[in-house]
From TrEMBL:
The keyword Nucleus applies. GO terms for cellular component: cytoplasm; nuclear pore cytoplasmic filaments. Residues 46-75, 251-309 are annotated as: Disordered. It is found in: Nucleus, Nuclear pore complex. Coiled coil: none annotated. This is mRNA export factor GLE1. Belongs to the GLE1 family. Residues 62-71 have a biased composition (Polar residues). Gene3D superfamilies: GLE1-like (1.25.40.510).
Amino acid sequence: MGAFKLELRCPQKVDGIALDPEPDWSFEALLSEIDELERKINSSSKVSVPFTKERPRDISDSKSNGRTSASPFVMRVFEDEMDNIDSEDEEAHDQSSVAAKRFNFDDLYLSDSDDSGDDSSLEAQPCLMEKGESGESSLFELSREHQFRVKEEIRNQISALETDLKTESQKSISAIFRVERYREERCEMERKLDTQYQRNIAEALNNHLTAVQRDLEVRSQIEERKIRIDAYEDAKRKEKALQEEKLRQERAKAEAEAKRAEEAKRAEDAKRAALEAQRRAAKEAAEREASEASRRAVSGSAQEGTYRPQINALNAQSSGKPPAAGKILKAAESALNLEQGRLQKLKQFDDENQALRLRSKEDFRKYERQISKLVQQITGTKDSVRQKAGELVNIFNDARCPQSISVAAFAKKVVSNCKTPRNAAFACGHVIVLVTSKVPTAMDLVLAELHRACIYTVPKHYSQSAFESKEAYYKAIGFQEDEGKIESVDNYLARLESYMKLYGALVQTEIYGFQNAHGLKEGWAWLARFLNALPANRYTAVALNAFLHMAGYSLFKKYKSQFRKMLNIISDNFLNALRERGDSNLNPVIAEIDAYLKDNKFLCEPEGRSLEGSLLSDVYVPESDYY
């Protein structure tokens, strides 16, 4: 049986059963569906009977002449479902059901195929309209219009549903996005809060540990301080006990030495009377030799007078024995007298300081260490010289330390410090002048220490032939002994040169506003005594060379032509005497002295004489007014 498409004007949903907006049923399915609807309608008392079945639907499947034979069927339709009919006839039909119309499908061609579409139905419609009555065509049109409206309403509802669905979907997505973002923000905030909380915990823990550590350190410092205080008190008690014991021993020793000295003095007085006659004989011999030397004196030394060498017996006073033949000391008498006075003053200071140390419980060694440190820090700058000199004077004026102890320590340290290779001799000379101008006694002690360290600062010299051995001669002229061995000649000459440089720097130092008690006048006297009394040998040559290089510039600027005469005597007599000795070891010092004289190096200011810096500019006179 072929397919037939029928569009009905009926409600979309009857008793919960929805109609397909686009029905595509076969005729058998349509009949079965209509029968099912009739049974449901008849069984329900709430709904009036819409259809009345006049005769059973019996449609034969047989075909004749290529056309489908079918019996007509009767359909009843209510007027309330026909919305577009306004005529009065239709209102009359509302009171009673419309008479059933019979449709004849004898002339309608139906396709055998169940899949025939809307086109075949549309082609058959004109036939129905032509053969049917006007009511049938109206029903057909109404069905089509109702179908179109249903489709349009369904499409609109579907479109609205789709729009609502999209809107709701977008709202859901937006809400989900906001929720996710809010969740991320909350997570980030919680993470930051957690980090801040952990940081606060760490800081609190760190502060607590720091406080605990600080408390432990304070406690440990307190304990260490207590331990140090206890140790210091114990050491102080032990040191006090040692000092008391030492003082007791020193007192006993001093008493014993005093007894021995008294006994020795008595013996010395007895021997002195015996030696007086021998001394007179030696003095007469010395006067005769001095009269001969006076004729050879330098003409320009009128200020100093005639320097006569005095010949004394060596060790006559100490040993009490007659002087052996050849033990002769060569020096000017005036120089020996000055040396004796300075050494006597130094001895008095040493005795006084020894007694002060025995009587006082004060430890004066710290002042001596402080003085030694200041002397070692002297450099060739004006600010260093002024600062060190001021600090030294402050120590001398310190009431806690006797001045005799501090001055003696200064004299010893400043002389011993000149042996160092980096010693600034001119700077040390300035410090000595500045200090001794405030404390004049210090100058004699410094010179006494120089005389004790180097005999050529007097100047004086011993004849080697007067000694029984070379070692005894070396010890007499100042050689040092280390572990029973005499130092080498080169070491001795290096020390001799250092001492003479300090002496030469001292005599030529003049500072405006300060008085040098041992200035250029004493330097001129030293040079005259040296040339009058001392022989020409390696030791005296080194001493003369060092002195000229340090003080020659200042001596020339003051004495001019008189100093040139001195240099001529050195060139004609002293250097010739050195050359005549024929000693190859003398060649370097001879070359240095000869170059000094020939190159007129005394016209050039020696290196280091002018101190660097400006802090002492107010106490120094300009070069034009220096002398």
